[in-house]
Amino acid sequence: MNSQSKLTQNKKLRITSGIVLFLVVAISGFAYTQKVSPLSWGWWGPVNVDEGVAIGGYDPVAYFRSGTPVKGESKHQVSNNGVSWYFSSEENKKLFELTPAKYQPQYGGFCAFATSKGFTAVSSPEAWHIEQNKLYLFNDKNVRETWISEISDGVIAQSDKNWKTH
């Protein structure tokens, strides 16, 4: 190989390396702002929090009791495993304190659909579903509908398996 070929090859390598580096940084930046990551990396911790508050400050008990998402209040707050949970009433707060695992959303409140695919992703408290007395949250309502349509195909078992192995 002559010196001109080596220079051309080195230039191509530097350009390719630069492109790869740019893509890694760009994707990492997107993942950081959107809380999207492979489960095994464990970047976000076990609970989807925003400024230390779980599930956007929504009351996890309300999904079961009123069948609708209800914003909680900081005056009805419980700390569970270093995470703050807000409730819309003192009664809901007390129910949670008795059995937090009963009311906490599955997969730490991350999107259940993403979890079934091996990722974590933010969820919207407005996109939710209760199945077998367990609360599942999703990135949006379209993703929720897709996930629900896959229940008979074992999507819950896949989500559970992925979550346990992360």
Mean pLDDT: 80
* Residues in helices, as a percent range: 40-55%
The low-pLDDT segments are 10-37
- The protein's oligomeric status is single chain
Tell the overall outline: globular
Protein name: YHS domain-containing protein
Pfam family, one: YHS
Transmembrane segments: 12-32
Keywords: Membrane, Transmembrane, Transmembrane helix
Provide a descriptive summary of the structure in words.
About 17% of the residues have low confidence. 45% of the residues lie in helices and 20% in strands. Strand 4 and strand 5 form a beta hairpin. It starts with a helix and ends with a helix. The protein has two domains: 34 residues; 128 residues, no CATH class. The chain has 166 residues and is α+β, with helices and mostly antiparallel strands.
List keywords for this structure.
single chain, 166 residues, alpha+beta, 2 domains, two-stranded antiparallel ribbon, 7 helices, 8 strands, globular, transmembrane helix
